[in-house]
Structures are given as C-alpha cells and as structure tokens.
Design brief:
By secondary structure, this protein is of the alpha/beta class. The chain has two domains: 2-21 and 264-367, Aspartate Aminotransferase, domain 1 (Alpha-Beta Complex); 24-258, Aspartate Aminotransferase, domain 2. Helices cover 40% and strands 16% of the residues. It has helices spanning 2-7, 24-35, 48-62, 77-89, 106-113, 131-137, 160-172, 230-244, 249-258, 263-286, 312-323, 352-362, and strands spanning 11-12, 72-75, 95-100, 116-123, 128-129, 142-148, 176-180, 206-211, 224-227, 299-303, 325-326, 328-329, 343-347. An eight-stranded mixed β-sheet has the order 2-9-8-7-6-3-4-5, sandwiched between helices. A three-stranded antiparallel β-sheet has the order 10-13-12. The structure holds pyridoxal-5'-phosphate.
Length: 369
Amino acid sequence: MTRIAALHDAINLSQGYPDFDPPRELTEAAKHALDAGYNQYAITWGARELRDAIARRAKTFNGIDADSEANPVVTCGATEAMMAAMLSLINPGDEAVIFEPFYENYGPDAIVSGARPRYVRMQWPDWSVDEEDLKSAFTNRTKVLILNTPNNPTGKVFDRDELKVIADLCTDRDVVAVTDEIYEHIVFDGAKHISLATIGDMADRTITINGISKTYSATGWRVGWAIAPKTLANAMRRTHDFLTVGAPHPLQIAAAAALALPESYYQHLASMYQQKRDDFVRGLQKAGLDCRPPRGAYYVMANFGRFPFDDDWAFAMHLVERLRVAVVPGGSFYGDPKDGRRFVRFMFSKRDETLKEAIDRLQGLRDVP
Ligand code: PLP
C-alpha cells in the first residue's frame, strides 16, 4: 500500500511509521556514537551499554527481573526478535496460538519457522476474546502462544484478568509465550500496560519483545530486543547470530541513551497520541465509518459495512485512488482474508496537519451513495 500510495500521491496511513523525527537526544547520541568509535560489530547479542539499559528499564517500568548478562538478546528490530524466537522454539509439527486480527508478520513467522498457526478471534467491536475459543485452540501440539499488547491492529490493551487466563493456560499446557509489547508506552484513558512475564510464574516461560521503533519514533534504526529465560535466550542468541550477526552498533549505543529518557518523555508521548486519536477517530466517524477509539497503539480498525463496496480491497482502492488516502485492507490481518473483508486499518502516527488533511479528504466518502 505504501507503493500504491506513492503512485497516487496519497497520504500514507497504511504502514506504521511517523512522519516526524525521533527526540533530539537520540539523534545526538547516534552522532556522538559514530564519532566515538562504535563502528565495528558489537557483541552479537547486544552491546553491554544497551543490555544494561534494557535490564534497568525492564525492572523499573515493566517489573521484569532481567540480568543483563543472561536475558537480553538485541536484534534488528522487534521483527527479527520474533523470527529468532520462533526459529529457536519451533519443531516441525508444532502449533502456535495467535490472536486474530493479528500484526501481519505473525502468520509468516509461524509458517517460516514450521509452526501451524491456530487463530483465536478477538471479536468486533470490543475485541474481546471468548475464553472457550482460547482454550480450544490449545492442543497437545501447541508450543507457543503469540501475544501483542497493546495490539496492532485493534488497539486492544489486554487487562490483568485476560492475561491471567492466558498465563494459566500456558502454565497448564507447558507452552511458551512470546509477547510483543512494542506499543507499551502508547496507552490511553489511563489504561495500564501489563507485561505477561509479571503474571504468576510466567517469567520462566515468556519471551518479551520490544524495541525503539515506536516509543522513540525511529522505525528505520532497526534496533529491538527480547528478554528471555536464560536457556531460551541462549538459543535465540545462536539463531540471531546466523540471521543478522547484530543490530547497528552506534544505534545500539544511542538506544541505550533513549532508554534513559525521563518519565516525562513517556507521559508526553501518550498524551500526544491520545489527542491525535481523539481528533482522528472523530473525523473517521464523521465520514461515516464505524469505529471505536483504540485503547492503545496507533491504529484504528474501521468497519465500512454501510458503504456499497464488495470487499476490503475495493474499499481501500477507492480510498487511495479517489480520495488519495492509503490504508491497509482488513483481510491482511486474518488467517482467512475473507474474515476481514468489512474492515480497513488506519494508522495515526502522523503530524496533526497530515491527519487533518487525511480527514478532510475522507469526508469525500459522504458522496458515496
Ligand atoms: N510489532 C508490531 C506489533 C508492530 O506493529 C510492528 C510495526 O508495525 C513491529 C513489531 C515492527 O517492529 P520493529 O520496527 O522493531 O521491527
């Protein structure tokens, strides 16, 4: 969709990246690292400075006890962390439980690593999960459960009760949880992000994935990480070594500086996005789309069922070609794309003027009979 957006000179609300810069502290730290000799390979599983910063932040923000020597694995983005986790865990024939709609990569991550995905539906419009559906997705072949909270594309933030149900199932069935928490600081209306690794004994069976892309608006830097129990971290470190050797060394050093930003940075980030969310959702609703304010992350799944389009692709193509706003067709987020055919996903990590222009263009939907 990013490519199609460029063809039509459209505002690109498809792929999840900001049109504004990271904080100056980060870019300054990166420049400084380039001049300070951090130009060769770091230790493959991460520069000590960054692993120390990850362990510190995991303790103070998430409540996860991590030893910087044993548990962190620094990767080229959360994307590589997820792939390395799956390649390390999965044997042929294993199954992976995945909540759907899901961030597009999880399906291929499962398939490339040899796992069979078993999808559990989050139900429109509140994206609730039926406990029985979840239970019945577990079989004697289940090896991993993939969680993403705050969630892309739904904006769902899993609460403590939901996490407890997941934790109990993983513990009872001896399943490893791989949890992608890359939007942990983008939560609204007082919602609180809770790390699955802090529930019960989950720290022993959870790989927590994160990165700088979203929290520090630096998607192009490609620095992410996992925090894993020692044995799993060792397996991931080997896999990661053969996948990419390591994330960019100077940017790892700058990421360590990012993790030392004061709490006020995170508060400002959340309130900035909450304001964008409020204005953007109001604009979508005014244009006639059925959507609820997300509780976290920076996406809105909108139901366009009242408009006369055959499916999500037809609607998305109308938006990009006629109204010049690019979105992602909902089917991309479902195991069976037909299940997403009444949805498109908008993303609102853009400057206010970009979002306002997009909303103005989308009012053109009111001319659709
Ligand atoms: N995880 C989720 C849920 C995402 O939405 C994204 C990007 O959109 C990523 C991971 C990618 O993270 P990274 O840039 O660290 O590879």
